[in-house]
Specification:
The protein is mainly alpha-helical and 232 residues long. The protein has 10 helices and 3 strands. 36% of the residues are buried.
């Protein structure tokens, strides 16, 4: 299933969501201009679990913590970038609407950091650089799941040689998405050779779960009762 749009219009211009998309695009195009140095760039700015755990520097030393955040703006290829940005475009504006601009930005980075932590716990000896915004975006999906469960998601559904456009509730679409991430992550964790590799499944699971947990703290309830938004 591939989402095309939802039926919840944003009430305010999603400036932070658009800025995050623009930043991801800029980082990607900068990376590809590195030419023969692109792999070194990804090794340096992607997050490597084994390297992080082996580092004896103070936990919040800049050189140790920077890849946690720089890795959120790097993508392996155009399809990886497009898939992540499309999900952020569809679901992020409404979550920003519910939180306010500043809270949404902080929420996004917290979910991204939590997703990195989840993948590190699942694969502590991995030397493969983690790149992509999907962990942070998974947190956005978790927040959307809780805030707009009955929103309708227009979904592209290919079945064999036929293609359908169907509207499904957000709780069904996002719940199924989360279940698939969990199953794939568990299968890979259990050593199932048929499980997809090269994807940080536990980052998706961790980001989504933290998004669900944090939404009550970050949701701007005062905007509904007072008719205005309190920005961070």
């Amino acid at each position: 299933m591939f989402p095309l749009k939802d039926n919840i219009p944003a009430r305010v211009f999603p400036v932070v969501n658009i800025a995050l998309i623009a930043a991801n695009l800029l980082f990607f195009f900068y990376a590809v201009t590195r030419g023969d140095l692109v792999q070194h760039f990804y090794d340096q700015h992607g997050f490597v679990p084994a390297r992080f755990l082996a580092d004896t520097n103070f936990l919040f030393a800049p050189g140790r913590i920077l890849p946690v955040f720089s890795s959120m703006f790097l993508h392996a290829n155009v399809m990886h970038l497009f898939g992540n940005m499309w999900m952020l475009w569809i679901f992020g504006d409404n979550v920003e609407d519910a939180m306010g601009h500043g809270r949404y930005l902080l929420f996004y980075f917290l979910c991204g950091a939590a997703s990195v932590a989840a993948q590190t716990l699942a694969t502590p000896v991995s030397l493969v650089p983690m790149v992509g915004a999907s962990g942070a975006i998974s947190g956005v999906l978790g927040a959307y799941f809780c805030t707009y469960p009955r929103a309708r998601i227009l979904t592209f559904l290919p079945l064999f040689i036929f293609f359908y456009l169907v509207e499904v509730p957000a709780y069904f679409f996002l719940g199924l998405w989360f279940l698939l991430q969990f199953i794939q992550g568990w299968a890979h964790f259990a050593g199932d050779a048929t499980a997809s590799v090269g994807v940080a499944w536990w980052a998706h699971v961790g980001g989504f779960g933290v998004g669900v947990l944090l939404i009550r703290l970050f949701k701007n309830n005062s905007s509904e009762s007072k008719g205005k938004r309190l920005q961070l």
